Amino acid sequence: MQHQSLYRRFRPQRFAEVVGQPHLVRALRNAVREDRVGHAYLLSGPRGTGKTSTARILAKALNCEALTDDGEPCGACDSCTAVAAGTSMDLIELDAASNNSVNHIRDMTEKAALVSSGRRKVYLLDEVHMLSAAASNALLKTLEEPPSHVVFILATTDPNKVLPTIRSRTQQYELSLVGADEMAPHVRAIAEAAGAPVEDAVVDYVTERGAGSVRDALSALDTVLAAGGIPDDRADVNALVQALARADLAATLIAVAEATAAGVDARDLAERTARRLRDMFLVGASVEPAELPQADIVSARELSDVMGRRRNVRALEALGSALAQMPQSADRRLTLETSLVGLLADEALGAGAPEAAPPASAPARGGTDGAAPPVGGPAAARAAMAATKAPPSLDAPR
């Protein structure tokens, strides 16, 4: 029998099973129970947070033949089982990333006018921000005068790219990354339901790898179960971060060389290192990321104390600069190494030259990390911080 991924096997089938989105669950459940469902919804948020799963549950509830008193689909009637199996004629899913032309949208709107077998016909448009301008305008016209029996659910990871006129005609809900306090119990429950109970160390590792994305966390759990234990895929980042914290140029280059020799892509290494540096920066500023397990918070605090805030920020700037250059680079490893060498060379120059005394009217600067100019500047630091919000994972449907 072919193995089915955990995120597909344990996809939420009821509103109560959606993790970490209480505001959305409460609103949709009340709308179903009170028969106040809108004609269009826009669900936005990071990947793997439950946008399409929630849309499918809503489609179930709208046509359920035995809806519960609290607005939950029964999960057992013909309509519910058809949605769960992907064979329902009342739920039409369209990937806007690959079906983004005006003809695709016109075809959809023409079919939407046809009467459905159930009470409501639901159209789910995933990654709706990928629609072409002409397709977006065609969709807008339909949203202005929607058929009474149709509900449109638009899902996107980038709502700012959706036409404002489309956004204004939808009920908008933003899904957020799931915190470690909710993710860890969920991971443990899924492992037990899969017949493979795991230790606390595995739960912490999977929670950290998920970085707030339920799907990414379950993909990481799949990897751990297949490998028979926690893979040693954090050693490369640990070695690089520790070398940067000590401003050790030789150790930094050795860490990059060993990671790439082991088959690690330089961009992946840079993104994961930036994510660790971001955690260190936040923890050093007395902000504990909700998606970070307690053990990782402790280690991030220790490394932050060694590295210092100034060097931490400059390292983020260097990685941000490298990540920005990599799409046009023929050698990603060289790009990463060049940025890190520039960072640590400036550190050495700053440490060797006396720091100019500040003007009498300005407060003296604290810290022991030198006074070299930042590498890449604030824009590069912002790029590195942004890269950490969408950690790499296996491509998968939502």
Low-pLDDT windows of residues? 352-376, 390-398
CATH homologous superfamily title of the largest domain: P-loop containing nucleotide triphosphate hydrolases
Number of beta strands: 5
How many helical stretches?
A: 17
How far apart the termini lie comes to 24 Å
Features:
single chain; 398 residues; alpha/beta; Rossmann fold; Zinc Finger, Delta Prime, domain 3; 3 domains; five-stranded parallel β-sheet; 17 helices; 53% helix; globular; disordered C terminus
Quick structural summary:
By secondary structure, the chain is of the alpha/beta class. It has 17 helices and five strands. Helix 2 runs parallel beside helix 3 (51-63) and helix 15 runs antiparallel to helix 16.
Provide a descriptive summary of the structure in words:
- By secondary structure, this protein is α/β, with parallel strands linked by helices.
- The protein folds into three domains: 6-174, 3-Layer(aba) Sandwich (Rossmann fold), CATH 3.40.50; 180-227; 235-353 and 367-387, Zinc Finger, Delta Prime, domain 3, CATH 1.20.272.10.
- Helices cover 53% and strands 7% of the residues.
- It has 17 helices and five strands.
- It has helices at residues 6-9, 22-33, 51-63, 78-85, 102-112, 133-144, 164-167, 180-193, 200-210, 214-227, 235-245, 249-261, 266-284, 294-307, 309-325, 332-352, 377-387; strands at 40-44, 91-95, 121-126, 150-156, 171-174.
- It has a five-stranded parallel β-sheet, covered by helices on one side.
- β3, α6 (133-144) and β4 form a beta-alpha-beta unit.
- α8 (180-193) packs across α9, α11 (235-245) runs parallel beside α14 (294-307) and α13 (266-284) runs antiparallel to α15 (309-325).
- The longest helix is centred in the last third of the chain and has 21 residues, at 332-352.
- It is globular, with a radius of gyration of 25 Å.
- Residues 352-376 and 390-398 have low confidence and may be disordered.
